[in-house]
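Hypothesis: this fold can be encoded by more than one sequence.
Test: take the structure tokens below, design a sequence, compare later.
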């Protein structure tokens, strides 16, 4: 039964991929099918026209926007940790994972906006990715296509500094209105730029320079080791 369902699902995805390639390859879109998911990279200048068709065309009917988020590809594929030799088990940020195909990314396209769509009519999902320029990270808002994009785009603006042209109310949504910088950018310091605390003498919250020392997080890798098991058992016995 599972094999039959999986085969039907795979056929649906392959049909979707073929339809997208036939319809949008001429506009510079790149469509891939990997890990059971279809992803299409859309040039930002064609974003609004294409997503409108994806929502309204009977062949697609992606009427629901499930999620939209920003991504920072600065230093993508590079790491200060030895990812190739890292453990393949445990909670390690250094574990080698599936590498995303970003071949459609331009030379100066540091950021991207990723959209996850759902077609309830066809029981299908689709991921869209559109890259934006590093010096002017601006892309058209899709709020007029899917009203649910409103807060998603505000979040991407707040955390990554990606600006959405035509958004009705592009303000920060998670950080303070006076916050400086964008926390999810890879060049943003881990400790932040300022720290805040309530000052009883002044009767208000004040901002100060960060007092923490910069540090690099060490990946946590859990390995099975009899030495630790023995020590834990010994401690339990002594207790």
């Amino acid at each position: 039964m599972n094999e039959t369902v999986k085969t039907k699902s795979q056929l649906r995805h392959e049909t979707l991929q073929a339809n997208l390639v036939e319809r949008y390859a001429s506009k510079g879109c790149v469509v891939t099918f990997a890990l059971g998911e279809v992803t299409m990279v859309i040039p930002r200048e064609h974003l609004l026209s294409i997503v409108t068709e994806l929502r309204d065309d009977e062949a697609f009917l992606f009427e629901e926007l499930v999620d939209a988020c920003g991504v920072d590809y600065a230093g993508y594929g590079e790491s200060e940790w030895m990812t190739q030799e890292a453990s393949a088990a445990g909670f390690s940020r250094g574990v080698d994972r599936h590498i995303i195909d970003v071949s459609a990314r331009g030379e100066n396209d540091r950021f991207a906006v990723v959209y996850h769509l759902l077609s309830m009519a066809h029981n299908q999902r689709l991921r869209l990715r559109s890259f934006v320029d590093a010096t002017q990270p601006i892309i058209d808002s899709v709020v007029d296509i899917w009203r649910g994009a409103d807060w998603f785009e505000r979040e991407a603006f707040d955390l990554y500094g990606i600006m959405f042209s035509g958004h009705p109310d592009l303000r920060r949504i998670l950080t303070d209105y006076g916050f400086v910088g964008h926390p999810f950018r890879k060049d943003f310091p881990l400790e932040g730029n300022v720290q805040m605390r309530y000052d009883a003498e002044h009767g208000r919250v004040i901002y100060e320079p960060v007092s923490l020392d910069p540090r690099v997080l060490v990946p946590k890798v859990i390995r099975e080791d009899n030495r630790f098991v023995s020590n834990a058992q010994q401690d339990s016995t002594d207790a």
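The chain has a mean pLDDT of 82. The first helix runs from residue 2 to 24.
Hypothesis status: open.
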